[in-house]
Design goal:
10 strands, 2 helices, mainly beta, 8% helix, globular
């Protein structure tokens, strides 16, 4: 999970899918070893916060999740490899029946090189919204 990831798509359980082509922008996320979590839009820094792993005891099992200071919580993370490493993030945990809650989503990312950008300040970020 450590590294920089390029967004490929978001699929919604209620139907529909977003991709860079349908929304006209790209997204990048970066999970760093020091637990900083960075987000970028079109390779421009958007936010810097933290990420952490937690557990919930739901008898008879412990369920692990990953969360960020931005409020994201992913209950299911998978990786696949076909010459490129892919990461799938789901904001839900499927029930034993196979069902999931409404209004949930699955995000797909591919591993990439770090975003080439200088360190930014909160002043730089605020200036981008003026």
């Amino acid at each position: 999970m450590i590294g920089t990831w390029e967004w490929i798509s978001t699929s919604y359980t209620a139907g529909g899918e977003d991709t860079p082509a349908t929304v006209s922008y790209t997204l990048q996320i970066s999970f760093n070893e020091d637990h900083t979590f960075l987000t970028y839009r079109d390779e421009v820094p958007q936010m810097s916060t933290y990420w952490a792993v937690g557990e919930v005891y739901a008898p008879p099992a412990f369920i692990q999740f990953t969360m960020t200071g931005e409020g994201d919580t992913w209950w299911d993370i998978d990786f696949s490899y076909d010459g490129t490493l892919y990461m799938t993030l789901r904001d839900y945990q499927a029930l034993p029946s196979g069902s999931v809650g409404p209004n949930t989503k699955t995000e797909l990312y591919r591993q990439r090189s770090p975003v080439a950008t200088e360190t930014f300040s909160w002043g730089d970020l605020k200036a981008g919204f003026r």
